[in-house]
Amino acid sequence: LRATGETPTVEDYHVILKQFAAVGHFVGAGNILKEMDILGIQPDARTFGFCLQAIAHRFTLPSADDAAHGGMARSAEKLSWTLMHRMWELKVPLLNPNFDLALRVLGEVADEEGFDRLVRIGYGIDLSFPDQMPLDDAQNIITVDQTRESEMDKMAVRPLTTPAFNTIIEMLGKSGRISKMVQ
Fold it and tell me: How does pLDDT run across 58-74, given as a tens digit for each residue?
């Protein structure tokens, strides 16, 4: 399209991103996002969702050796945080499926601090004290049902989904925090 002088639309990029997500090509997905920024094309929640799907799908594929997997994990972690920050900057709503994918990616790369922070932000669960609301955030918490618009200055607590619950259990088990997993 660009070679013919046409400007691609966000939907044109979604076709490509959907293919990258299907094969786990997260580097290509990240490059597409950069190209969209250069051309001034506003990504939406689906755009970021396809990028997160590409990252998450890559972890399901075999890796040639552990050293390569470690490098891939670092790249995937960096891209996932870049995506989250970019969504925040653009005020793109973090839909539940995208949030679950981001949580899954952080679990795969074993970023315990980031994982715990994301669970706290998104679900209002402090994994150190899972049976109570995070104390320092209690004033800023609102529920998704109480607001129709995205309030970027407040934390929107979403209901805990089954995939997120399974990801939390898996991450706590893999990281050796068995007592927290049981709790």
Answer: 888 777 654 445 677 78
